[in-house]
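WARN no homologs supplied; continuing
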Amino acid sequence: MGAARKTLLFCTSYCRDEVVWRARPRRWLDHHLPLPIRREAVFVLDDASPYVPDDPDVGVIGELPPTLPAGPAAFLFRFATHEGRVGLRGHRGWWRSFLHSLAIARAYGCTKIVHVESDAFLLSRRIVDHVNGIDAGWTAFWCPYYNMPEPGLQVIVDDQFGAMEAVASRGLDALTRSLAELTLPFTHVERGFAGNRYGERGGRIPGYADYACQVNHSTMETRYRG
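OK structure emitted
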């Protein structure tokens, strides 16, 4: 475990209306903002949604200012154009938003990026402490349901920022020909925590889970064990 790093925490987003905003990014913010995740900035990266929130604790911006304004607990960066998604692999909006986190990190001197997708939740102090302590590499967690890395939960430290830049240089057309799970150059896949894409099975999240992904049902309780 190394010294605390200046960290960016972010998710990606597209909200056609307020109902979706409340069910996903707002729920994500309400869950994660109180958690002891070390971070200097929290961002929702938005693919030009037709709905723009006016929540008092969320600052909506369309470009990166030299310094972040004081006050908002989180920022919604809204792209001017919508990339969207076509089919299973053609998730252009996600790729653009995900890779833009590198520009944000560099703009504000962050040396660590924590990506927790807007339908993913950290549920235990054990995993939060682990995420806080990661000091090198490009870490993904594990999805037992598909037996592959989980791109909805990643930690990227600055020794891998060059690798992230190399991914971005391939362009959206190339990146959307494959799944992120099979494209991103993880240096470590962490399997020591309990988690899965519980939402795909439509059931409950087990009480022992350290993280949950694909939580797309309002009835699925996401309780943090601090």
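The mean pLDDT is 95.
OK
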